[in-house]
Amino acid sequence: MDSLAGSTESYYDEADSRRKRTRLIIALVLIALALAATWYAFSSSKDGAAGAGGAAGGAGAAAMPSITVMVPGRVSVQSTISTNGTIAARREMPVGIAGEGGQVVRVLVEPGQWVGAGQPLAIIDRSVQTQQAASLAASIRVAQADADLAQAELTRAEALVSRGFISKADMDRKRATRDAANARVRVAQAQYAEAQARNGRLNIVAPAAGLVLTRGVEPGQIVGAGSGVLFRMARGGEMELLAQMAEADLQRVRVGTRATITPVGSNLNVEGQVWQVSPVINPDTRQGMVRIAVPYSAALRPGGFADARLISGTDEAPLLPESAVQSGPEGNYVLIVDNKDTIQRRAIKVGTVTDDGVSIASGLTGQEKVVVLAGAFLNVGDKVKPVIQKSSQ
Q1: Which of 60, 124, 261, 387 gets the most CB atoms within 10 Å of its CB?
Q2: In which domain, by residue range, is 267 found?
Q3: Taking the CA of residue 86 as centre, how many other CA atoms within 13 Å lie in the half-sphere pointing to its CB?
Q4: Is there a single domain that holds both residue 349 and residue 220?
Q5: What phi, psi does 346 have (nearest 5°)?
Q6: Among residues 315, 331, 348, which one ends one of the domains?
Q7: CA distances from 338 to 115, 202, 325, 372, 389 (A)
Q8: Which of 113, 110, 177, 112 has the alpha carbon at shortest distance from 150?
Q9: How many helices (H) and strands (E) does the chain have?
Q10: Helix (H, G, I), strand (E, B), or coil: what is residue 56?
Q11: Bridge partner residues of 357 (DSSP)
């Protein structure tokens, strides 16, 4: 019985000892795993700090974006000045009453019609003036008849004077009578010619060939010297653009400078040239007037508005696509890639904008690597991989 109890107690002691050993082994394994994990983490952080350069060359290099850049160089660019202004007749001719006036019988032209020099624009009633002219014509015939009679009497008297029937005093009187009659003929003729000239000025006629712009008279209207302007014409149909330009731009414009005029609301381009540059500057606006002559076109209407582009010369400047030029609160700028492949910002001044691109007036020499696309997604200091794009110029 005692032996059985002892063996049982020995069995339980041995089982308890095995459990303790198992727990000790598990604890040692966990401690070993924890130490291994700590060592691995320490080694990884150390390798990461020591091998940052290598990482940049590996995974970091793969993360650097490829950016398209171009070296624009310097190309020949036309220097242009953009402005706008009002269209007007280059030589406007106001037409009014030249004669004594009267009632308008007919108006022969409409605005937009071409007329020749001396062509009637409106007809004035001349019934009274015609009768006056007829009366003066009759007075010429009366005076001429008196002159013929005086001449006949003088001729007969000259035949009798040699016989002593007529004294020299009578002869002098007959000559005076003949001369007076001839003078009355000339007076009557002058009065008739004056009447004819007055009647010829009754009608309203074009002073020169050109385009009728406005009409301010209707049939039945009574017109006279105080009626003012009845028609307005553009001599030869020539037009001009009156453009106000800044003082600095005015210095670059000369007589003969070529210009392209585009009326508002139209795609038409009309070629012209500067024919007058204002010799004075408005002290309030610091602007001066430039007058650009343009040939006639149905799209050019006096009083209308138009844009103009003046070609003031040719410059050598970098030329960039519009996508390369950025704008900000401080003005225009571009992004360039320096020698370390780092993004830098460069302030610029934009020159002429053409269909080929944007010329850069200042800020670039033309030898920089300028970012062409994706500039809005880059920041100063970013590392990039530049891909050179050849300039199309």
Answers
A1: 261
A2: 82-90+237-315
A3: 5
A4: no
A5: -130, 120
A6: 315
A7: 69, 83, 17, 14, 16
A8: 177
A9: 6, 23
A10: helix
A11: 354
Residue 216 and residue 346 in one domain: no
Q: Are residues 8 and 56 in the same domain?
A: yes
pLDDT of residue 359: 81
Same domain, 311 and 242: yes
Write down the residue that tokens 């540059």 correspond to: 277
Q: What is the pLDDT of residue 38?
A: 61
Residues paired with residue 344 on neighbouring β-strands, in sequence order: 336
Give the pairing type, strands 385-389 and 204-205: unpaired
Indicate the SS3 state at residue 190: helix
Name 198's Cβ contacts closer than 8 Å, sequence gap at least 6.
Answer: 99, 100, 129
Give the chain's radius of gyration (CA, Å).
52
Measured in whole angstroms, how far is the alpha carbon of residue 319 from the centre of its chain? 23
Query: If you write DSSP's letter for every residue of 108-140 in order, what string do you get?
Result: ---TT-EE-TT-EEEEE--HHHHHHHHHHHHHH
What is the amino acid identity at position 4? Answer: L
Q: 287: domain CATH number?
A: 2.40.30.170
Strand order in the sheet with 319-320: 319-320, 357-362, 349-354
SS3 of residue 310 by DSSP: strand
Widest CA span of the chain, in angstroms?
Answer: 223
Tokens representing residue 76 in the block: 């020949």
Q: How far is CA 74 from CA 115, 188, 205, 359, 393, in A?
A: 53, 84, 60, 9, 9
Give the pLDDT confidence of 63-114 residue by residue, as tens digits. 788 888 888 888 877 777 888 999 999 888 999 888 788 889 999 999 989 9
Q: How many domains are there within the chain?
A: 5
- Among 236, 259, 290, give the residue marking a domain's end: 236
